[in-house]
UniProtKB/TrEMBL annotation:
GO terms for biological process: amino acid catabolic process; fatty acid beta-oxidation using acyl-CoA dehydrogenase. Heterodimer of an alpha and a beta subunit. It comes from the Eukaryota. It comes from Cyanidioschyzon merolae (strain NIES-3377 / 10D). Pfam families: ETF. This is Electron transfer flavoprotein subunit beta.
Length: 273
């Protein structure tokens, strides 16, 4: 009997590049993203790298195909091409530019929320017949940290979150994973199908060479709509106001205890007597 195959689906998200300093819109309704550099969410890069490394360890017989998927506007195609350049085989964009929205006040440019992203990925999994889904543990724009857990719940699959290590057991449909918890490292054995979310210490994403990037630009990207997958976008919450973090107070460095005592006395915190 041949060993079980890992049919991998990797979710990736387009975000404002982590090195960009974002600014708040004048009306405090959100972040001003106009003309800002975007890139793949760093945690999603870890998920793509984990999928490619899994095939490098197990071989193409056990990992015959890796599909990257993104749920968002047309501009997400560039993020998917980054995944193609890293080594995934196919890319699928679920385009939300013209997606119908159940809440008329939200408008057509709705940013998909974690629950709808999870529902969309679940519908895509049904179409692709994937049995292993890799995601970043969170996105650096909204920091929701929800999509992976919601997806596992919708599919009723085993899940491993905040992973720092992934190992596939030979000749079996089992994974051994290490997840980072407050007390240290928790080790789990998971049976396929599974949803995994990747943390920072899992790996270091590979450098994308120019030839691979150029080849990725010529590869086709399959485009679907949310209606193709039977998913309707909804609004579950509303941003009331966004503000800049408070400015840090000025800090004075003191070299000796005597300077500290004098400063406290000057501030009236310490009695001079």
């Amino acid at each position: 009997m041949p060993p079980p195959c890992f049919r991998v689906l990797v979710g990736v998200k387009r975000v404002v590049d982590y090195a960009v300093k974002v600014r708040i819109t004048p009306d405090h309704s959100g972040v001003d993203t106009a003309n800002l550099k975007t890139s793949m969410n760093p945690f999603c890069e870890l998920a793509v790298e984990a999928a490619v490394q899994l095939r490098e360890r197990l071989g193409p017989e056990r990992v015959p195909e890796i599909v990257a998927a993104s749920v968002g506007p047309t501009a997400c195609q560039e993020t998917l091409r980054t995944a193609l350049a890293m080594g995934v085989d196919r890319a699928v964009l679920v385009n939300t530019d013209a997606a119908p929205v159940s809440d008329s006040k939200a408008g057509s440019a709705l940013q998909p929320e974690p629950l709808d992203v999870a529902r969309t990925l679940a519908a895509l999994q049904s179409r692709l017949q994937s049995n292993l889904i890799l995601l970043g543990k969170q996105a650096i724009d909204d920091d929701s940290n929800q999509t992976g857990q919601l997806l596992a719940g919708i599919l009723n699959w085993s899940q491993g979150t905040f992973l720092s290590k992934i190992e596939a057991e030979k000749e079996q449909d089992l994974l051994q994973v290490d997840r980072e918890v407050d007390e240290g490292i928790e080790r789990l054995r998971l049976r396929l199908p599974s949803v995994l979310t990747c943390d920072l210490r899992l790996n270091k994403p590979r450098y994308i060479t120019l030839p691979n990037l150029m080849r990725a630009k010529t590869k086709p990207i399959e485009t679907l709509s949310t209606s193709d997958l039977g998913v309707a976008l909804r609004t579950y919450w509303q941003i009331v106001r966004v503000d800049e973090p408070p400015a840090r107070r000025q800090v004075t460095m003191l070299k000796t205890v005597d300077e500290l005592v004098a400063k406290l006395q000057q501030l009236g915190v310490l009695d001079r007597a």
